[in-house]
Amino acid sequence: MTRSLAVVFVSAGLAVTAGPVGHRPPEPAAVRARALVQRMTLAEKVSQLRYDAPAIPRLGIPAYNWWSEANHGVARAGPATVFPQVIGLAATFDDSLLYDAASAISDEARAKYAAFSRIGQRGLDEGLTFFAPNINIFRDPRWGRGQETYGEDPFLTATLAVQFVRGMQGNNPDYLKTLTTAKHFAVHSGPEPLRHTANEDPSPQDLWSTYLPAFAATVRDGHVGSVMCAYSAFRGRPDCANPALLDTILRRRLGFTGYVVSDCWAIDDVFRTHKAATSEVGAAAMSLSAGTDLNCGVAYRTLEDAVERGLVPEAAVDTAAVRLFTARFRLGMFDDSARVPWDTIPYAVVGDSAHHAMALRAARESIVLLKNDGVLPFGPSVRTIAVIGPDAHNLDVMVGNYHGTPRRVSYPDDAIGRRLAAGGRVLVADGSELADGIPVLHQIPSSALETPDGQPGLRAEYFANGELQGLPARTEIDPAVAFTWLDRPPLGGGIVDSFSVRWSGRIVAPVTGTYRIGFVGMSAAKFYFRDSLMFAFQTRYEPAQHAFDVPLTAGHAYDVRVEFRNWGPNPDAHLVWAPPGTDRLREALADARRADAVVLVLGLSPRLEGEESGLHIPGFDGGDRTTLALPAPQEQLLEAVGALGKPTVVVLMTGSAVAVPWAAAHANAMLEAWYPGEAGGEAIADVLFGDYNPAGRLPVTFYQSVRDLPPFTDYAMDGRTYRYFTGTPLYPFGFGLSFTTFKYTHLDLPSVVAPGSAVRLAVDVENTGARAGDEVVQVYAAHPGAPYRVPLRALVAFRRVHLGAGQRRTVAFTLGADALTVVDTAGRRVVPPGPVVLSVGGEQPGMTGALAASTTETLTDTIRMKR
User: Fold this and answer.
1) In angstroms, what CA-CA distances link 338 with 334, 344, 414, 428, 718?
2) Exposure of 470 by Cβ count < 10 A (0-12 exposed, 13-18 middle, 19+ buried)?
3) How much is the pLDDT for 9?
4) How far is 648 from 389, CA to CA, in rounded Å?
5) Nearest partner of 792 among 846, 729, 862, judged by Cα
6) Cα-Cα-Cα-Cα dihedral sign, residues 686, 688, 689, 692
7) CB under 8 Å to 226, separation ≥6 — which residues?
8) Sequence-distant (≥ 6) Cβ neighbours of residue 602 within 8 angstroms
9) 454: phi > 0 → left, psi -120 to 50 → alpha, else beta; which?
10) Which of 118, 123, 266, 799 could form an SS bridge with 262, CB 3.0 to 4.6 Å?
11) What's the confidence (pLDDT) of residue 488?
12) Could you give phi then psi for residue 494, rounded to 5 degrees?
């Protein structure tokens, strides 16, 4: 804020006097907000209830866009540290890491906000209010957005999300560092194609035992500033127009005091798809009355009309506006920067080496070792490694979705090559398409490009505006179109530079066949081939990838022109292709035969699993999955390479559980690396070569097959997740191996406990191997005497601890009173009849055979409850 803005509020009694940094403002934020809102007209108040709130010059209020993303790093706003996708962060089972990562993310967010504000930028993705964390329960691995969650367990989700919220919002008593939004309230986890029409009616037990605990924790323990209502309906009423959900449950039962924001354009669904209202104005009035304060969308433009027609009282507008301005005051937006401690964070922290090191720590901790017959770590005899698979050098799978732009990215193939000793070599091949009809697109090299006058590369005309207008500010030859400009736009200027580029020339086909030619970028682009417009797009949400298939003849040159327009903080442009004439499998097998060992980097991609999309191919439907298996081309590659008998390590890069029974039976070793962020390749290489001892644990169940699952549309928890699944998983929740072994002894816990009392337990954990390593101590509770359905077992505590070789330490837990309770069929938390069985170890109790982690064990004892 400028100092002139502070003067504006003197007449309203809202200005603060000069004082030292951290000096407490004289009035609470809510009092200041209420005084400000009282000075606004109805039209002004209504304008502030939209995500793209305009300025009110007469009151000195600048424009503000409430929509920013930061699930695992500041997203879509230029350079940022990209941590592992959230499901990978969950696999760390490390709540202290979540706090540290969130603190780093919020450092970058504050620095970016200050930089944007200095140049008057107040647009999308440039604010301090973030639509994160996603704390929906990943109840079914087919859901494409499960990658954004902390997995299938309510306790794990709640514990990690609270730490994320605390790290993001900071610990200052007067000013929030940033403001987070717990989403999507409350029963929401696919299918994606049905999200605008679905009506979920879970039992009271499932609601309060599975779907609400993480929201309750982020509200009560994390003091989350905002909650987002979902697209779907809850018990017959759209979530964002549902007073039972937003008032009775969220505000009255959970005690929430912040603001509610709609999922983007969800209020349109109230009348368009749910048919709960007959018009936009009716939907807006219903939603505001129910408790949705902020509209991510445009429906609230009708609220002035709704008030005038008596559909909603002006007092409801006032209530929402006060909540929103309370948040802005708590963020320090109307105080001199000398008073706001977070305003001193320098822009230099964005993507700096310290944050990259933290991303590496997170990526290392997230890796789950699923199998190892002794082939890992690689020894000095492994000098030639074939790194094969469509995910071996693929930016999409490194960064996941809702991501920022990393200043540096470590890919698996590159990192493995760097790790080999002098004289070693790495052989790299795609081996297969990502999925049927979805090849991996690579950069078009300069050898296949020529300018209109025959020089290598493309003619580039750079314009100092976003519309290719006037004369170009600079003309040059670009060897290739491969640009991620970060905060260094091509024509200079600030971190947001409106510019446009026209690349023109020819593509020269090296071989005859059908090519897939495409463009990946942010903002907007048009692609012309032989003067015909092949596609056009504009995006601010995720990098767009568009492509077309065209037959080309070897040696012939074909005119191309790309017109790129940038108007946001994330300029990115890449000209890509998949050339024909390559037998990917044959080349991969040839590399594998020449290698001492094979690393198969397989899995999925955010282009296959993710938010609602138009993708409909075998195995994938609209962002979701229809099978749990690897895509068919990758499964064929896996089995063909495996048949060679070479030492083979499978590295899975996915955002969800995959069914890989063939790999589980035949591969020598297997890692789950998730979508590991900017340092993922280095972390994978560290594990393969033994520089890091893996200890990640699965935050989701890996099932044998999709046949193990109930219907995707069924929100009842029977048969879902480790808590209710009675079959045999491929790998269970909480599973993960190590290069060392651990022993548990001396489990100490009381034999009798009074209901409502906290319980202290302790156990000795010893590293009995020759390597230092982490162990994830897990505590599960079971209630075998309960007279109604309860979880088979439930995680109630966990801690990640580091132990040197031969080291032993006592690990103590204090379980809260709720840890020994369950939720009954009426939705009440109670102590059921019978004993409580507590199990402590490095995995779930009762695992046998291949499911028993050879590196760890569990101890079990019983507590009797006083009656």
Assistant:
1) 12, 8, 45, 53, 55
2) exposed
3) 31
4) 12
5) 846
6) positive
7) 129, 179, 180, 181, 182, 258, 259, 260, 261, 294, 327
8) 389, 390, 391, 630, 634, 637, 638, 650, 651, 652, 653
9) left
10) 266
11) 82
12) -85, -170
Q: Which of 323, 264, 254, 312 is nearest to 288 (CA)?
A: 312
At which residue do the structure tokens 């020339």 appear?
505
- What 3-state DSSP class applies to 612? coil
**How is residue 100 written in tokens?**
């540290």
What is the model's pLDDT at position 855? 78
**DSSP-based three-state secondary structure for 121:** coil
Which residue's entry shows tokens 């090299």?
445
Q: Under DSSP, is residue 701 helix (H, G, I), strand (E, B) or coil?
A: coil
Beta strand segments in 724-847, E:
742-748, 752-753, 759-767, 773-782, 794-803, 808-815, 822-823, 829-830, 836-841
CA distance 518 to 525: 11
3-state helix, strand, coil split of the chain in percent (to 5) is 30, 25, 45
- Could you give the CA distance from residue 7 to residue 639 in angstroms, rounded to a whole number? 71
Q: Using CA atoms, how far apart are residues 149 and 732, in angstroms rounded to an integer?
A: 18
pLDDT along the chain (867 residues), means of 10: 31 33 67 98 98 97 97 95 98 98 98 93 94 98 98 98 98 96 97 97 98 98 98 98 98 98 98 97 98 98 98 98 98 94 96 98 98 97 97 96 95 96 91 94 95 95 94 96 88 78 97 95 92 91 86 96 90 93 89 98 96 94 97 97 97 98 98 98 98 98 98 98 97 97 96 91 97 98 94 98 98 94 96 94 87 82 89
According to the model, what pLDDT value does residue 756 have?
85
Q: For residue 802, which of 96, 58, 134 has the smallest C-alpha distance?
A: 96
User: Of 344, 401, 6, 360, which is closest to residue 170 (Cα–Cα)?
Assistant: 344
Distance CA 700, CA 657 (A): 7
Q: Residue 26: what pLDDT?
A: 60
Distance (Å, rounded) from C-alpha 773 to C-alpha 30?
49
Q: Pick the closest to residue 612 from 145, 177, 42, 77 (CA basis).
A: 145
Half-sphere exposure of 56 (CA within 13 A, CB side): 18
Which contiguous run of DSSP H or E holds residue 621? strand 620-621
Instruction: Decide if 305 contacts 312 (C-beta within 8 A).
Output: no
Q: Reduced to 3 states, what is the DSSP secondary structure of residue 117?
A: helix
Query: What are the start-end ranges of the H helices in 689-760?
Result: 721-724
End-to-end CA distance of the chain: 60
Task: Please answer whether residues 184 and 229 qualify as being in contact, where contact means their C-beta atoms are separated by less than 8 angstroms.
Answer: yes
Residue of 440, 844, 383, 486 whose CA lies nearest to 653 = 440
Q: Decide if 183 contacts 134 (C-beta within 8 A).
A: yes
Asked whether 860 and 845 are in contact (CB, 8 A), the reply is yes
Catalytically active residues, by annotation: 263, 609
Map tokens 């072994």 to a residue.
741
Distance CA 288, CA 209 (A): 29
Contact at 8 Å (CB) between 386 and 591?
yes
Q: Helices (H) and strands (E) in the chain — how many of each?
A: 21, 38
Residue by residue, DSSP assigns 472-500 as -SEEEEESS-EEE-TT--TT--SSS--EE
pTM for the complete prediction? 0.95
Please list, in sequence order, all residues whose beta carbon lies within 8 angstroms of the beta carbon of residue 35, skipping any fewer than 6 positions away.
12, 13, 14
Residue 562's H or E segment, with its range, is strand 557-566
Q: Are 290 and 315 in contact (CB under 8 A)?
A: no
The partner residues of 508 in beta bridges, in order of sequence, read: 557
Rounded Cα distance between 403 and 610, Å, is 13
- Are the CB atoms for 129 and 594 separated by under 8 Å? no
- List 260's β-bridge partners, or say none: 227
Give the bridge partners for 822, in sequence order: 830
Is 242 within 8 Å of 205 (Cβ atoms)? no
**How do strand 233-234 and strand 199-200 relate by DSSP bridges?**
parallel
